[in-house]
Amino acid sequence: KAGVTQTPRYLIKTRGQQVTLSCSPISGHRSVSWYQQTPGQGLQFLFEYFSETQRNKGNFPGRFSGRQFSNSRSEMNVSTLELGDSALYLCASSLAMDYNEQFFGPGTRLTVL
Amino acid sequence: QKEVEQDPGPLSVPEGAIVSLNCTYSNSAFQYFMWYRQYSRKGPELLMYTYSSGNKEDGRFTAQVDKSSKYISLFIRDSQPSDSATYLCAPENQAGTALIFGKGTTLSVSS
Question: Percentage of chain B surpassing pLDDT 70?
Answer without folding.
Answer: 99
